[in-house]
Amino acid sequence: MDYKEFQRWGEIFADEVEKIERESTVDKLKNHLKNGDKVYVISASIDDWVRPFCCSRLGVTATIGTKVEVDPGGKLTGRFLTKNCYGPEKVNRLLEIEPDRKNYFLYAYGDSRGDKEILEFADRGIMIR
Q1: Phi-psi label, residue 34: left if phi above 0, alpha if psi -120 to 50, beta otherwise
Q2: What is the spatial distance between Cα 127 and Cα 25, in angstroms, rounded to a whole number?
Q3: How many CB atoms within 10 Å of residue 67?
Q4: What are the tens digits of pLDDT across the range 74-104?
Q5: How far is it, in rounded angstroms, from Cα 30 to Cα 46?
Q6: If 119 and its partner were Cys, which of 72, 85, 91, 125 is the partner (CB 3.0–4.6 Å)?
């Protein structure tokens, strides 16, 4: 598949995510943004599918997700460019962007087993049920 087409499908998917979003979680996220906090959505999902909803529609600082490999002709190869952003990889990827851990208070919200490590790493980890 052409990478640009794949990205277009990510934009379309954002419409579907809006229909199933957890309003209480989105409200917490928006409160952090109102307070001037940096907000990252860290997901094992493909970054191109998470970013349109989270950045364009919600206004988060950035998304951190699994990246896909694209060949020189602009086609998906079917492989990941990065490690799957799951479990301990969520912590690793956050530290790539925000390495000076002593200088910020980290809130983390999660809803699955893949969030365990980031919740434990945070100053305040909150499991959403």
Answers
A1: alpha
A2: 11
A3: 14
A4: 999 999 999 999 999 999 999 999 999 999 9
A5: 23
A6: 125
